[in-house]
Amino acid sequence: MPFKIDSSDVRPIYIQIMDEIRRLIVRGGLKPDEALPSVRQMAVQLRLNPNTVAQAYKELEREGLVYVRRGFGTYVKSGIRSSREKEKLAHTVASMALAEARRNALTVDELVAAILNLSKPESGVNE
Amino acid sequence: MPFKIDSSDVRPIYIQIMDEIRRLIVRGGLKPDEALPSVRQMAVQLRLNPNTVAQAYKELEREGLVYVRRGFGTYVKSGIRSSREKEKLAHTVASMALAEARRNALTVDELVAAILNLSKPESGVNE
Amino acid sequence: MPFKIDSSDVRPIYIQIMDEIRRLIVRGGLKPDEALPSVRQMAVQLRLNPNTVAQAYKELEREGLVYVRRGFGTYVKSGIRSSREKEKLAHTVASMALAEARRNALTVDELVAAILNLSKPESGVNE
Amino acid sequence: MPFKIDSSDVRPIYIQIMDEIRRLIVRGGLKPDEALPSVRQMAVQLRLNPNTVAQAYKELEREGLVYVRRGFGTYVKSGIRSSREKEKLAHTVASMALAEARRNALTVDELVAAILNLSKPESGVNE
DNA sequence: GTGGTCTAGACCACG
DNA sequence: GTGGTCTAGACCACT
User: Which residue in A97, A105, D12, D119 has the most C-beta neighbors within 10 A?
Assistant: First the structure.
């Protein structure tokens, strides 16, 4: 599990875990029926309380991305989003963002600039 | 004040109020030295606790977007640097879009690409 | 909140809470937009950890039976199941039970007797 | 052994196995002194851990439904009091039906009424 | 005051 | 070993 928790992130920790695992699943870093690290392993590795990891796993199960085999572990579901569907998703999210930008009298360039700025917090502090 | 509060929005209500008023100011719906609705009016209209509205107004004052005349009310400041405020609006919209992208396991690049693609309907795109 | 937790019940506590509140809502003991006891109140009253109550409330929210107003409390949603729909529900549950009974070579009488027996654990111990 | 394990079922797997075998015995699909599949066969067939199957067999032995001939296998006992076993089957089916009814805010009476109604299609009921 | 998140532990049934 | 439930407490943002 090659990711870290950013305690300065505004997102709750369990949401960060969900986002990262979701990314790994959709990107293929985690394949169908592959086991996720156990709640305890992940908790040790990320230096978190097992409950926090468990919360993330449970939400992922509710989302339908993973399934649980009792007494065994948590596994990636098969039959998840194809890349075709991902294009649609991107389209949907993008159009929502554009609509919101228009409502705020923002140009596309301003929106894109803000997104790029937000997503690489390397240079200087924002706000 | 033609706007609504979305209690299912992730943003706190006072932030929603701030964003909406900022938007109105930047777009010209509220002009310099024009009075905002009183805290109580706004609270009744939006069915909110007056404290929540007051918090929003106070933050807007700290940001320098409005000023208070004690005993009279709250007014839009003149000489607002619209570009600065637009940045804040962009920041807000961008972070909401980013969160939505993450929830759908989209990378920043994919999101930006989709936005740019959608906003340039030159090359014969459908819909 | 006129109900108790049965620690000898096989159901987890938070499920018991959910079942009872669901019952109260559908039966009219809790009306639309009426507030549920706060997590802490309920926890004190039932002598439970607040987290346990919170878990029940969150699940009920996910089920769409209640909604949360942040900073205020938890409320009964309006527009919940009519009695018409309840008949359908009863029909569905009953037919599932009957099918399962048939699969086990049980007569209707045996099934009904077992249900009645299970639901009134007054007389003697079962099994 | 024509049955399947439902990993989404609330019942533990070893209980599901027990219920199914009990059902087969009561219904006559398994006759006295007939051999059950070996633990390993069953485990392979149902894709389960042999320990799980062994646990089910052990419990069935404790219940007096089967007996073990060491080095040979597990066999159905003769002289089983079918009525007693039917009660257990009824108990299981009834408790599942009750749980489902509770999840849908149905009272016991409503459930029983629906069952009786469904099972007596004398008075011109539809469907 | 409210619910939301998190930690540090515990015990349990299941496999 | 696994995940599920529960307790006892803490801090947080929001209203």
Answer: A97
